[in-house]
Structure formats: structure tokens, C-alpha cells
Amino acid sequence: FRNILESAPDAMVIIDHYGKISVVNAQAEQMFGYARNELLGMEVELLLPDDVRNKHISHRAAYAREPHLRPMGIGMDLSAKRKDGTTFPVEISLSPVTSATGSFVSSVIRDVSARKKLERDLIAARAEAERANKANSAFLAAASHDLRQPVQALSLLNGALRRTAKDALIVEMVESQQHSLDAMTNLLNSLLDISRLDAGAVQPEFEDFP
User: Which residues contact 88 (CB under 8 A, 6 or more apart)?
Assistant: First the structure.
């Protein structure tokens, strides 16, 4: 049993019916910063933040009345406290243990600080990406709107030239210029549509192609 306990990758703490720590492994010593002889006999609530200790006593009493297996990672936000007073997020599984000397509760404790930090970083990165996307959409909307007016003015001027032009070469140049203006108008319209789509002002319509 001792070999299994010490080879476990997570901290393991076994408490008796009174909430006193009876058995720990080396990982528990390392996690909480206590020597083994300090942990043994200690009230388990001393490994918890001050503001949850009283509540934990009632939870422990309720668990003792109806002991059951509680797996790790069931969506509970739990914290533990080191000897130096720092707190950190943990996941804890509980298992009732019965032996000739009485009833115990075995807990497996996992430090999830790295995972929680990664989750926070992902949330922050997502928020930053959304902010940048909104800023980009706003820029596209403003740029396309501001550029459409001079392009429209050029198109009107180009149309007037087309109606008055007599020389075939000039007509060809005006028509080529109009093609370029039409392409630019389509591009600006597409940019405006993209900004509206990103802002949720329009909804995409899905169609099946034959």
C-alpha cells in the first residue's frame, strides 16, 4: 500500500473520522510545503483557505453520514492553502475507506494552477481577438464608406466623358477606366458586407449548389 501511495502522481491525504490527517504521500508534502510529521495528526481544514474552513467542517460531517465516491473534475471550484499561506486551485476526488481500525476518507488532490492559467490566457486571447476583429471591421466599414464617395464621383465624371467623347481611342480609355472603377466599387461593397457580417448586422444565407 505504501509503495502505491508514494508512486501516485498526485498528492494523497487520508483522514480519519475526526478530520485528522492519518496518511500522506511525498507529493502531499511537496504540494503543501509541510514535512510529513507536521501533516500527520493535523486537522485537514488547515490545508484550506481560512474563509472556507467552517463550511468544510459541515461538508465533511455530511460526507461522513453518507460516504460515497466523488470523482475528480466535477465542476467544483476548490482551493487549497500551502504552509506559506498561498492558495492555489485544486481538483479533489474522495473515496471512503473502511479498515479494522475505523472509517477513513482518502482524497486525491491535484494542483490545477497551470491549467487554470491556460484557461485564463485563452479567455484573454479570445477577448483580444474579438476586440481586434471589431476594430478591423470598424476600419473596413469606415474606409469603404469614405472611399465609395470619390469612386462614385469618378464614375459620374467618367460617364460624362463617355457621352461627350468622339475619338475612338478616348472612348476605349474611358471604358477601360470605367471597368476599373466598377471593380473598385465591387471591392468596396464586399469590404462593407464583410464588416456588416462581422458586426452581426447581416446574416449569411446558405444555399445548395446544383
Answer: 79, 80, 82, 111, 113
As beta bridge partners, residue 60 has none
User: Which residues are CB-neighbours of 165 under 8 A, at least 6 positions away?
Assistant: 171, 174
Q: What is the pairing mode between strands 78-81 and 21-24?
A: unpaired
Q: Which CATH number fits domain 2-111: 3.30.450.30, 1.10.357.10, 3.30.450.20, 1.10.15.40?
A: 3.30.450.20
Q: What is the torsional sign of CA 174, 180, 183, 187?
A: negative
pLDDT confidence tier of residue 193, bands split at 50, 70 and 90 = confident
Q: What dihedral angle (degrees, nearest 10) is formed by the CA atoms of 17, 11, 52, 15?
A: 10
The three-class DSSP label of residue 135 is helix
pTM above 0.90, yes or no: no
How does residue 206 score in pLDDT terms, banded at 50, 70 and 90? low
Residues 131, 183: Cα–Cα separation, whole Å: 30
How many CA atoms lie within 13 Å of 1's alpha carbon, on the beta-carbon side? 5
Closest to 80 in 3D by CA, of 9, 127, 30: 30
Residues 6+ apart with CB under 8 A from 58: none
Q: Please report, for the chain, the start and end positions of each structural domain, with discontinuous segments joined by +.
A: 2-111, 117-199
What is the rounded average pLDDT of the residues 19-41? Answer: 96
Q: Which of 37, 21, 27, 32 has the alpha carbon at shortest distance from 85?
A: 32
